[in-house]
Amino acid sequence: MNKLNPDQSQKTDNKNTRRNFVKSTALFTGGAMLLPNMQMNAMVNVFNDKKLKIALVGCGGRGTGAAVQALKADDNVELVAMADAFEDNLKSSLMNISKEMGGSKKVNVKEANQFVGFDAAEKAIDLADVVILATPPGFRPQHFEYAINNGKHVFMEKPVATDVPGVRKVLAAAQMAKDKKLNVVVGLQRHYQDSYLAAMDQLKKDAIGKIVSGQVYWDGAGVWVRERKPGQSELEYQMRNWYYFNWLCGDHILEQHIHNIDVANWFVGEYPISAQGMGGRQVRMGKDHGEIFDHHFVEYTYPSGAVIASQCRHQPDTMSRVSEFFQGTKGTVSTEGDNATLKDWSGNTLFEHRGKDDPNPYQVEHIKLFESIRNGGVISDAENGAKSTMSAIIGRMATYSGQVIKWDEAMQSNLDLAPDQLTWDSPAPVQPNADGTYNIPIPGKTIVM
Questions:
Q1: How far is Cα 112 from Cα 395, in angstroms, rounded to an integer?
Q2: Euclidean distance between CA atoms 101 and 175, whole angstroms
Q3: Same structural domain for residues 64 and 45?
Q4: The pTM is what?
């Protein structure tokens, strides 16, 4: 695959100041929600009289939740198609969506439009105006590419890929979406959260000066495990227990910690040029834990010289923390939950946002998507989504290999974890050892590019 040269945000000229970064990327980082009402009202209301048809691709918990939020975001929408690899997932999701919507006629998924299998996504996408992509992320690039090729507006969950070829595919489709004036919202919902937007507004006013360092965290006990069932093929088992296989999930540094890494990119105003770090697997050791680590620590270096320390952990009975802290030349900013605080270096509070009554950002991102579609606007989150995905991927590369990973070099990687073409007869991309365990990355030995 041809080398894709990272954009000019990797260079150290004046385009990389935080202010210029925020200005030039306002749309694809959720900034479209900040357009003045006057400007929004002046746009052509091209879809106001049309019932927008929605397709849900990926019927797990997140897809079910996203579908409900989409249905609540606009008065004139209808869920008409659903797709999943597994019929039981689809049926359960449809039942839960119908229950959450109180039997609303907005839920109108006929039996013929309930698609199951590896070709289900395309069939559902074909029937919709707006597509929700919520499968395990390994499938995201091909589904996004198909949706954009066919002129659909998209909400897609993060991360947007699990490998570098997938990132390149999403970047190419993101440009196509811009050219076609299609709206794309990515589920990095902090860009739609009042506390983070308030903090960013203060950063644009130079409240704490230039950010030079920071620490971002997603430390917790971990997530679900799905045991192997009798009669399951290896491929079905991995897809059911998808969180623990890199071709499907990308490890928790990517699937979960991407949120905090994305905030670092956003607040610093750049994407990292290199990553180095360490990680391993000390607690989560079972056969049902696949191949991923249970802890990562990464040091990201940015073009401006800023260094961000990133840590994530899935270990029960340890410190839990999901937050971000940054140090600037004039003070600090912290973001945690619904709150944001800026202080000077004497400890005086410069700004404080307490957001217990703020709107749910998961709902807001869908409201903004449909408002933009109705008003002829364009939200272009996919490019930032791809680059924050890439930021987390180079972190994983660093912890797995023990090497310094440079963005420019990593973007040339052709290591393809997630095959585009699968059937139920396909071998699983990862095979277990004779004892049922899986090979775990070993720093100093594992090849990551």
A1: 43
A2: 35
A3: yes
A4: 0.90
278 vs 24: CA distance, rounded Å: 34
Note whether residue 428 is domain-resident.
no
Nearest to 177 by CA among 41, 27, 46: 27
Q: Examine the domain organization and report whether 165 and 183 are in the same domain.
A: yes
- H or E stretch covering 39: helix 37-42
Residue 285 lies in a domain: yes
My answer on whether omega of the bond before 303 falls inside 30° of 0, hence cis, is no
User: pLDDT per position in the chain (449 positions), as tens?
Assistant: 333 343 433 333 333 444 444 434 443 333 333 333 333 333 344 556 799 999 999 999 999 999 999 999 999 999 999 999 999 999 999 999 999 999 999 999 999 999 999 999 999 999 999 999 999 999 999 999 999 999 999 999 999 999 999 999 999 999 999 999 999 999 999 999 999 999 999 999 999 999 999 999 999 999 999 999 999 999 999 999 999 999 999 999 999 999 999 999 999 999 999 999 999 999 999 999 999 999 999 999 999 999 999 999 999 999 999 999 999 999 999 999 999 999 999 999 999 999 999 999 999 999 999 999 999 999 999 999 999 999 999 999 999 999 999 999 999 999 999 998 999 999 999 999 999 999 999 999 999 99
CATH for 160: 3.40.50.720
Please report the sign of the dihedral spanned by the C-alpha atoms of residue 440, residue 443, residue 445, residue 449: positive
Contacts of 13 (CB under 8 A, 6+ apart): none
Are residues 172 and 255 part of one domain?
Answer: no
User: 333 lies in which domain range?
Assistant: 194-356+389-410
| Within a domain: 249 | yes
Q: Which helix (H) or strand (E) is 268 found in, with range?
A: helix 258-268
